[in-house]
Q: What sequence folds into this?
């Protein structure tokens, strides 16, 4: 069918910015998709290759996320149909659940203990491994080794190490004539013990710092040496400022790791529910306990979903705050 | 290319179906017209092999029995996922709590009709009162009890003799037990008594034995359909004695690592251990270094003990209930008579199968174990080990918040009442 002159004069000179799905054939025929024949097929191929990941992401991430918002507003045990309860799950969380605030406390304490320790130890190891000394490659491998070992296996190994009666940790302390600890059995020592287990995998932090250190221009060190700067001055005035963007990245990564800690308290605590008491019942474990309780108990998916969203919001706030304040202490070579 | 893709698609689909069917699923008809009844246990590999051998003796021209392999370590996760996927096997090992909760949700086949009939396999053929605890408030029985756990005190005979303490025996008192623990502690044991059942989440229920035995009230009026939790003077008195025992070092405190308590007892490191009869089976395989005995739990006036039975449940969507019930009755009666002689883990709830258990204990010369199990089953006063309700995790969190601190002396005994009031709020809010 040929268009009349009148119709031609009314055709927009450019495609509309947001064409409706039912756009006219004349517009559709002019779309980049159709016009770039070869590129179009490439694009289609790209989408085809991406499709499995996109479908997986939609089915296993986006859909559960949306669904969990609904479950958070219901009482749902996974066996019978959910019952809408409004904000009851959130009310229970903040007012009557005796484990919620101890879980928040345990999570924040873990963050406070783990994040600085992992950064300091990771950086110290990276600085040490960045030196040209004999056997440094072997050392790097040894430090990184726990990262590649199966997580559950290494954590289980630590369970034996920390056994207060027959474990290696107390035996070593006894040999050294130092007081022994209850480790995972003590309410005060359980969380620090878990932090020690987490620090066992500090190799990943070390590797990123090592890459950052090796990117620092050597001329700067040479110039500092000529100026007579000491090693402390070089570290704090050159190295640290130049790797500060990586430091910010590490802070964010370690914060997320700490806030989402699950494996260690799950495997190491008595009855696997976090303890003694609530000492290692971090938020992720609390969510799991409610969603997937012990044998004989019915799941509380509604409440677990509500907790998931609270944890998500906590993570968003913490990361946003870190990003917001990172500019204060991050070095930038832009001239203002 | 198209054909290759087509073949790959068919193979993937078939693989998916196979994988799904391997995860469980209830009975179905095979091509030969036989009904397959599937069974899932939480037993160890060794016990499963004995069960397989015993199941090979099940002969019915119309039924094939197939056991689904399940690692016993993650049984609860597997059970939860199969429940949600509605792919539970025809028969699966379940606790009393699971059976009552699932029955309440209408998820299990109600066997009450079949069990009330005549024959060898009816409610009357089980140990007294056992079946009552498997009934829901409206009389449904979604599973059949199979084995009963009984509790007592394992003791190191030589440690007692060295300390000059008479050996524990039926009728010994709570004061006897704490005095013995104190002496054993003073003689060098780190703790005279390790009693996780008293110091962990189940503690408030175990502590009920003191008040029950002294004529007082138990912590909860029922673990299955509780209406009220109570703390009376006798209960507080009993907890006070436990607190004093922990304070003096005679009793292991809350949080004590129990992961290797079984081997520590066997090595002579723990002179008194509160645990169940199932250790006997383990000690027959791994012989302890010590001479040991098993005594009933202590009392004040009357014998009181803890009650706990596990069983076998069937989903409501089983395809052939008659065939499933036939296999169920074979499992509960005949299979245990063949398994228990080699692995006397617990006494069967089905009374006609109990001799196999006691004979195995006699053969192994575990006379104190047999006597204590019998005494427990005959005890006039019993108490469930924990709430079996859907809101049990909420009350557990309240117990976690109060019980360890009360036992450690960080909170006063009067906080027992605060804990109980809050548990009563949970009971009330859950109807």
A:
């Amino acid at each position: 069918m040929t268009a009349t002159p009148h119709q031609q004069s009314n055709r927009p000179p450019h495609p509309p910015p947001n064409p409706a799905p039912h756009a006219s054939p004349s517009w559709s025929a002019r779309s980049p998709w159709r016009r770039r024949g070869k590129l179009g097929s490439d694009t289609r191929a790209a989408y085809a290759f991406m499709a499995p990941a996109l479908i997986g992401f939609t089915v296993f991430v986006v859909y559960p996320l949306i669904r969990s918002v609904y479950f958070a507003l219901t009482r749902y045990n996974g066996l019978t149909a959910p019952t809408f309860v409004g904000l009851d799950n959130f009310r229970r969380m903040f007012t009557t659940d005796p484990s919620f605030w101890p879980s928040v406390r345990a999570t924040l304490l873990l963050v406070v203990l783990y994040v600085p320790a992992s950064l300091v130890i990771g950086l110290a190891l990276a600085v040490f491994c960045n030196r040209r000394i004999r056997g440094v490659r072997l050392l790097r491998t040894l430090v990184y080794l726990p990262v590649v070992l199966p997580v559950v296996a290494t954590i289980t190994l630590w369970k034996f190490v920390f056994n207060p009666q027959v474990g290696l940790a107390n035996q070593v302390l006894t040999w050294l004539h130092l007081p022994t600890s209850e480790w995972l059995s003590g309410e005060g020592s359980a969380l620090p013990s878990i932090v020690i287990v987490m620090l066992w995998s500090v190799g990943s932090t070390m590797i990123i710092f090592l890459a950052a250190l090796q990117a620092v221009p050597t001329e700067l060190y040479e110039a500092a040496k000529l100026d007579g700067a000491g090693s402390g001055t070089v570290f704090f005035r050159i190295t640290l400022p130049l790797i500060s963007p990586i430091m910010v990245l590490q802070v964010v990564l370690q914060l997320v790791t700490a806030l989402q800690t699950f494996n260690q308290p799950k495997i190491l605590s008595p009855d696997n529910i976090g303890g003694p008491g609530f000492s290692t019942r971090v938020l992720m474990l609390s969510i799991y306990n409610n969603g997937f309780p012990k044998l004989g108990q019915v799941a509380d998916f509604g409440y677990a979903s509500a907790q998931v969203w609270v944890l998500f919001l906590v993570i968003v706030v913490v990361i946003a705050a870190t990003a917001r304040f990172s500019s204060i202490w991050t070095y930038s070579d832009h001239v203002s | 290319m198209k054909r290759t893709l087509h073949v790959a698609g068919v193979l993937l689909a078939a693989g998916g179906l196979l994988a799904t069917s391997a995860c469980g699923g209830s009975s179905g008809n095979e091509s030969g017209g036989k009904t397959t009844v599937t069974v899932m246990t939480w037993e160890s590999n060794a016990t499963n092999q004995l069960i397989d051998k015993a199941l090979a003796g099940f002969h019915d021209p119309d039924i094939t029995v197939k056991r689904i392999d399940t690692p016993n370590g993650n049984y609860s996760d597997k059970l939860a996922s199969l429940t949600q996927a509605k792919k539970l096997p025809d028969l699966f090992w379940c606790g009393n709590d699971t059976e009552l909760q699932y029955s309440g949700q209408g998820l299990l086949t109600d066997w009450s009709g079949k069990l009330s009939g005549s024959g060898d396999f009816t409610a009357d053929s089980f140990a007294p009162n056992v079946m009552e605890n498997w009934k829901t408030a409206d009389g449904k029985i979604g599973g059949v009890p199979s084995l009963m756990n009984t509790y007592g005190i394992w003791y190191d005979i030589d440690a007692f003799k060295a300390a000059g303490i008479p050996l524990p025996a039926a009728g010994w008192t709570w004061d006897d037990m704490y005095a013995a623990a104190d002496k054993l502690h003073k003689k060098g044991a780190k703790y005279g008594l390790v009693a996780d059942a008293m110091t962990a989440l189940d503690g408030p229920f175990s502590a009920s034995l003191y008040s029950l035995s002294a004529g007082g009230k138990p912590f909860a009026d029922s673990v299955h359909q509780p209406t009220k939790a109570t703390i009376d003077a006798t209960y507080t008195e009993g907890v006070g004695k436990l607190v004093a025992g922990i304070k003096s070092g005679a009793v292991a405190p809350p949080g004590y690592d129990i992961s290797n308590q079984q081997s520590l007892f066997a090595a002579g490191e723990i002179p008194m251990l509160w645990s169940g009869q199932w250790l006997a089976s383990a000690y027959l395989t791994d012989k302890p270094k010590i001479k040991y005995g098993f005594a009933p739990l202590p009392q004040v006036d009357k014998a009181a003990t803890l009650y706990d039975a596990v069983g076998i449940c069937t989903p409501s969507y089983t395809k052939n209930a008659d065939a499933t019930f036939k296999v169920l009755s074979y499992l509960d009666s005949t299979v245990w008579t063949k398994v228990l002689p080699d692995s006397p883990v617990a006494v069967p709830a089905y009374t006609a199968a109990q001799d196999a258990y006691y004979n195995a204990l006699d053969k192994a010369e575990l006379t104190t174990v047999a006597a204590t199990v019998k005494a427990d089953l005959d005890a006039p006063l019993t108490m469930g080990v924990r709430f079996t309700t859907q809101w049990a995790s909420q009350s557990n969190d309240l117990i976690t918040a109060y019980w360890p601190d009360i036992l450690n002396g960080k909170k006063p005994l009067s906080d027992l009442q605060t804990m109980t009031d809050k548990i009563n709020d949970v009971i009330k809010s859950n109807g």
Observations:
- The radius of gyration of chain A is 28 Å.
